[in-house]
Amino acid sequence: MAINSLNFIIFIAIVCLVYFVVPKKIKWVVLLIANYTFYWICSKKLIVYMLITTISIYLLALGMGKIDSKTKELCKKEEDRKVKKQIKNKAKTKKKWIVFLAVLINFGILISLKYCNFIFKNLNSLFDMIRIPIEIPFKQILLPLGISYYTLQAISYVVDVYRGKYLPDKHLGRVALFVSFFPQMVEGPIGRYDELANQLYEPHKFNYENVKFGIQLMLWGYFKKMVIADRAALYVNEVFAHYQNYIGIPLFFAAALYTLQIYAEFSGCIDIVRGTAQILGINMAENFKRPFFSKSVQEFWRRWHITLGTWFKEYIFYPISLSKLTVKISELAKKIFKTSYITKLIPAIFALFFVWFGNGIWHGASWKYIFYGLYYYIIMVIGMLFEPLGNKILSKLKINKEAFSYKLFQMIRTTIIVIIGMLIFRSSSLRMAWKMFKNIFTIKNIELLFNGKLFNIGFDYFDFNILVIGTIIILIVGILQEKGYNIREKISKQNLPFRWILYYTIIFAIILFGIYGYGYVASDFIYGQF
User: Fold this and answer.
1) Residue 318 reports pLDDT greater than 80
2) I need a labelling partner for 13 at 20 to 30 A (CA). Which of 50, 120, 344, 427 fits?
């Protein structure tokens, strides 16, 4: 059930109707049934994996809670500080093993379903290379919907309980709601237990303001997805499917349009998800903050897929950068490098490798995704290492870093870097990405800009004009938001006729200018496959 389909809208309407009518005590039950109904429709028997995840983190977190309770009781009875410390250390070790078990179970499921074929394929290639007569058989495995998202959520819950951020929840229903909330199953955002679980469990009354703002956000999401992203896909799909037939400008234009497509689609999906949740009275984490206004790659990733970046920062970057191994590497670096600036960067550079390797492989079981992650890693490391030199050059050239012209240059530079990254991301292989990248610089078809043929690949002038208008609308909205304007509140304060004219304009724009598949079926979301 695609969230940009009529079936999904009908499903939401039924869920909301029932949710707001039933008594407060069973509202959470209605939501839980809705979650599992949605998941069953989308994944059928594969729902068993989500159940395993839910039950495992619930029981293992309770196990850590019992260890903490026993430790407190023993420490109260014991007066010797050394003995108390020993008791706490033993408890901490037991809890570490529980976290390890949670990671083993849940990441084990994810790896066996999503990555085993990739591993087996590469092992077979290795065996063939060294002439070992072994071939591991593998077959196509269906992935449960949202497994990459709810697995990260589940692990964050267990780790947070281990860290003492909050106590383990004794209510299985609340844990199940957190893992299975149906709107976020397609593309996130990746929720945090302390921010989301209680909201899902608490009863929410019908609130006209929530419904109004929720529908606003959903309409904006559908507009971005169906009018802009799916229209850009017409050109992108044609060029990437027959990339051998194109050189120069069409290839770069396709990569740029894919960047627009994936942004409009992914952020549009998140708008639909957050809007759906807001109708029910639930506030979900923001996942995008106008990333193309970023002046560096680091800033871009702080604004793009925010919840994934935050997860990697808290559960990968910090633990590794503060680990004993990193401390030893840092001490070794001090002996090798004389520059204190570089030695200070070593822990961050070391930890960032695992962050970006993880970010790449999270997106898919392919070398291109690993390279995609390491592409950003290399760029960030180069930026960190050469920052002092860059500042000196700017100072000598007397370039004002606060000037609009310099900031615009930074934004354009960052966007070009991102477009190259998206070329890797969209290509079916690294070889294809490299061929397309090389062919971009073959300037033999600049006349396409003047004879109009550039805009007749995959779509026509009408589609191109709609795409330009839609992109300008997104840009204007982004500029206003960047300046601090709350557009949704501004609209809500306007007179009723104006508001409804605006709403109907967006609705008809989606209906008239939206791109549909065969039989007017809504197209799938790109990030849904991850």
Assistant:
1) yes
2) 50
Record the pTM.
0.91
Q: Look-up: residue for tokens 């469990």?
A: 201
Structure tokens at 71: 């430790």
Rounded to 5°, the CA angle 103-109-111 comes to: 90
Phi and psi angles of residue 139, each rounded to the nearest 5 degrees, phi first: -140, 165
Per the CB < 8 A criterion, the answer to whether 256 and 240 are in contact is: no
Contacts for 71 with CB less than 8 Å, ≥ 6 apart: 87, 88, 91
- Helical spans, DSSP H, in 44-180: 47-77, 81-110, 116-129, 147-163, 172-180
Crossing angle between the packed helical segments 147-163 and 172-180, to the nearest 10 degrees: 140
The radius of gyration of the chain's CA atoms, rounded to the nearest angstrom, is 26
pLDDT surpassing 50 at residue 223: yes
Characterize 454-463 residue by residue with b for buried, 16 or more Cβ atoms within 10 angstroms of its Cβ, and e for exposed: bbebbbeeeb
How far is Cα 157 from Cα 172, in angstroms, rounded to an integer?
A: 13
Helix (H, G, I), strand (E, B) or coil at 127: helix
The answer to whether the beta carbons of residues 207 and 200 sit under 8 Å apart is no
Exposed/middle/buried for 186, CB within 10 Å: 0-12, 13-18, 19+?
Answer: buried
Split at pLDDT 50, 70, 90, the class of 133 is confident
What is the chain's length? Answer: 530
pLDDT at 132 over 90: no
To the nearest 10°, report the CA torsion of 337, 340, 344, 350.
-10
For the record, the structure tokens of 479 come out as 């500029």
pLDDT at 6: 86
Tokens of 385: 């290492």
Is the separation of the CB atoms in 167 and 205 below 8 Å? no
Spatial CB neighbours of 123, under 8 Å, sequence gap ≥ 6: 136
